[in-house]
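Technical annex, item 7. During the second reporting period the consortium partners agreed on a shared format for inverse folding records so that results from different sites could be compared directly. Each record opens with the tokenized structure and is followed by the designed sequence. A conforming record, contributed by the partner at site C, is shown below for reference.
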């Protein structure tokens, strides 16, 4: 990548948001770029909102926080949390969203239903390029539910949302993850990247004025241009 890029990674506690941000930051630092990161973490360790800001630039960066309307990419590990962070996305930005919702604590306490389809529909109406990934299917392919974060980082890289190659992210994984988990995480990275690349190709072939959703592979990855 060149110039500057801003990323927002949003989800809930327990989804590995902080590690995902760390991988992007490590890839940027290894490329000789300036990096600033910051996290906001909700009240609950698991289930509370977590938002990571990652800012990357060739020049010094004054603040670690992405200003509203300046994020080039929004990675939503949970669809409702992605909607919550839409104000950060710049016009023409890209959203990589996990299709599977995590019910918020308030919904569980009030015995309210929360399915997530409404949140995905809202993302599809915001005018951004939207890639919806079946995170559960990617995790099943790799054999662990704990690699969702790396799979979605891979999908973002494959769709061209990060400006870093899969190889650069592999190096970041090797520098950040315990040795016994490296191979599994690299498999997740490649599974996500393959899905993201397929989505990017489909999105490029469907640039029209209307919003459409197209299933592009067996993993249930979808695109709404």
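Designed sequence (site C submission):
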């Amino acid at each position: 990548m060149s110039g500057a890029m801003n990323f927002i990674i949003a989800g809930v506690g327990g989804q590995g948001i902080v590690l995902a941000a760390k991988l992007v930051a490590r890839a940027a630092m290894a490329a000789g770029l300036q990096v600033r990161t910051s996290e906001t973490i909700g009240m609950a360790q698991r289930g509370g909102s977590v938002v990571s800001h990652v800012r990357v630039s060739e020049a010094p960066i004054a603040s670690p926080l992405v200003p509203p309307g300046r994020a080039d990419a929004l990675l939503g590990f949970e669809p409702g949390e992605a909607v919550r962070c839409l104000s950060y996305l710049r016009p023409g930005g890209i959203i990589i969203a996990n299709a599977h919702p995590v019910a918020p604590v308030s919904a569980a306490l009030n015995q309210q239903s929360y399915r997530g389809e409404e949140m995905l529909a809202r993302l599809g109406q915001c005018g951004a390029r939207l890639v919806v990934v079946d995170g559960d299917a990617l995790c099943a392919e790799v054999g662990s539910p704990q690699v969702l974060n790396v799979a979605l980082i891979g999908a973002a890289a494959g769709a061209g949302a990060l400006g870093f190659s899969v190889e650069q992210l592999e190096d970041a994984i090797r520098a950040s993850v315990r040795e016994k988990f490296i191979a599994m995480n690299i498999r997740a990275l490649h599974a996500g990247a393959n899905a993201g690349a397929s989505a990017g190709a489909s999105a490029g072939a469907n640039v029209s004025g209307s919003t459409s959703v197209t299933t592009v592979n067996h993993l249930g990855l979808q695109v709404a241009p």
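The radius of gyration is 16 Å. The first strand starts at residue 4 and ends at 12. All partners now use this format for quarterly exchanges.
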